Amino acid sequence: MSYKAVVKTILAMVCCSMLIMWLVFDLSFSAINVADSMFVVGLCTFFPALIMVTEATKMFDGLSFVRSKMSRKPSFKSIYDYKEHKVQKNLYKKNPGKVLLIISIGYILVSIIISTLRG
Asked: How many CB atoms neighbour CB 80 within 10 A?
C-alpha cells in the first residue's frame, strides 16, 4: 500500500469511529465511549485483514470456478488451469492485508490504552 492509501485507510477508520460515536453514543466524547468506538472499528478491520494475510480467500476459488463454468462458455478445462490463470493474473498485485492488519492492531491498541487511562 502506498502512503496515500494508508492515510486514506486511517481517515476512513476515524470517520467510521465518528459515525459510531454519533449513532450509538450521541457524540458523548468520554474516554470509554471513544475507546469503545475505536475498538469496534479496529476489530471490524482486523478480521478481514487477517483473512487477506492468510490468503484464506483462495478457499472460494472452487466456487468461482463453478460459477464461471455455469454462467458462460467455459474457457478452462479444469480447476487447475483456472487456478494457474488466477496466479498469473494476480502475480503483480500486492496484498494490502499486512498493512491493514498493522493499522487495525494499532487502532485496537490505542483503544485499549485510552480505556485504561480513563481514570
From this structure: 10
Q: Measuring CA to CA, which residue among 105, 99, 97 is closest to residue 39?
A: 105
Q: Are 45 and 107 in contact (CB under 8 A)?
A: yes
6: how many CB neighbours lie within 10 A of its CB? Answer: 15
Residue 56's CB: how many other CB atoms inside 10 A?
10
The rounded radius of gyration (Å) of the Cα atoms in the chain is 20
Contact 115, 57 (CB under 8 A): no
Cα 62 to chain centroid, rounded: 22
Spatial distance between the Cα atoms of 106 and 49, rounded to a whole number of angstroms: 13
Specify the pTM.
Answer: 0.73
Q: How far is residue 57's CA from residue 43's CA, in Å, rounded to a whole number?
A: 19
Give the pLDDT confidence of 42-63 residue by residue, as tens digits.
Answer: 999 999 999 989 888 778 777 7
The full DSSP string for 24-49 is: TTTT---HHHHHHHHHHHHHHHHHHH
